[in-house]
Amino acid sequence: MPLKGEYEPSTAQFVRDQVELYESSGGTQGTTLGFLVTREEDEELGNVPVVILTTLGAKSGKIRKSPLIRVEHDGSYAVVASAGGAPRHPVWYHNVVADPRVELQDGPVRQDMLARAVTGDEMAVWWARAVEAFPSYAEYQRNTDREIPVLVLEPAAQQH
Ligand code: F42
Known about the structure:
By secondary structure, the protein is an alpha+beta fold. Helix content is about 30%, strand content about 25%. The chain contains five helices and seven strands, in the order ααββββαββααβ. The protein has a seven-stranded antiparallel sheet with strand order 2-1-5-6-7-4-3, with helices on both faces. Strand 3 and strand 4 (about 75-80) form a beta hairpin. The two termini are about 15 Å apart. Ligand 1 binds near residues 15, 83 and 91. Ligand 1 binds next to helix 1, strand 2 and helix 3.
């Protein structure tokens, strides 16, 4: 069931712009890292694919949308709360911890998903997949004492 509420764009202009282009193009444009890095860097990185995570604001109850690196395996996804290696978790992470019902848009496909934290061996498997998709994650983790959390998203329809 899609999340209900008033959309509140991010305070970061590049995030607002990427979400706007991604959604208005039906997931055909703005679908790579190009908004976070230069076009040349994006090409060098192999045009890293990006998904849009929709969460419910833990305090405001508003709809929040965050472009994130696409890390997918067999229909499940991981979202990595790296925030560029910042000392604090990104705010969207707290939203998902507070309410695991999220939406994920991967290109033209938008799904209701349920999020769960992963630890131990499962975390190691998903972390390896994340670093393979975006090697900078490993550098971010090296540069911060904060353990960068990973949440796995599975289609809500499959869970009863
Ligand atoms: N960030 C990542 O962490 N991981 C990625 O893989 C990633 C990839 C990526 C690719 C492209 C791109 O353009 C951006 C990318 N980002 C990635 C950045 C990501 O989209 C976010 O901008 C970043 O992670 C920071 O997320 P944030 O939620 O901390 O954003 C802040 C700036 C923000 O929007 N703050 C809002 C504000 O008004 O200041 C509040 C947002 C919010 O959810 N508020 C909650 C509410 O209730 O509404 C309050 C929650 C609380 O507990 O305070």
